[in-house]
Amino acid sequence: MHVPGGLRQRAGRSASAAGAQVGRRLRIRGWAERALILALDGFGAVLEDVADTLEPHRLCTYLYEPAKAFSDLWQYCPILTAEDAAVRGNRVALARLTGRTLARGLGLLGIEAPRRL
């Protein structure tokens, strides 16, 4: 799954540069970023729970959370027009991580994720 609208390319970052942002400390600027980070953080625990309970519907329910949180980020926090390059980089990294998380979760359910949103 690509970052919405070719965001990575429009932000002027290569895939490796944007991906490197995920490994460093993110500065949270608003409630939408915080909500998205917390939603993404739950992915591993949900996968363990699904494996233990054999209840894949829990993964479906979980995937709605980061999708909704990303929608809020997209609506309330400018990504490409953020106030500085560090914030812009953080938000691009969050977008990429969200795309990978949703694609992986959908893939585990046997659903092919769209290439672009």
Short description:
The chain contains 6 helices and no strands. By secondary structure, it is mostly helical. It has a domain of 79 residues: Isoleucyl-tRNA Synthetase, Domain 1, CATH 1.10.730.10.
Description:
The chain has helices spanning 7-10, 15-23, 31-41, 43-53, 57-76, 85-108. 68% of the residues lie in helices and 0% in strands. The protein has a domain at 30-108: Orthogonal Bundle (Isoleucyl-tRNA Synthetase, Domain 1), CATH 1.10.730. It has 6 helices and no strands. It has 117 residues and is an all-alpha fold. Helix 4 (43-53) runs antiparallel to helix 5.
Spans of at least 5 consecutive residues with low confidence: 1-22
Helix/strand order, N-terminal first: HHHHHH
Q: Estimate the global geometry from the Cα principal axes.
A: elongated
Q: State the share of residues found in helices, binned by percent.
A: 55-70%
What can be said about the biggest beta sheet? none
> What do we call the CATH homologous superfamily of the domain at 30-108?
Isoleucyl-tRNA Synthetase, Domain 1
Task: Tell me the strand percentage band.
Answer: under 5%
Span between termini: 8 Å
How many helices? The count is 6
In round numbers, the mean pLDDT is 81
Tally the beta strands: 0
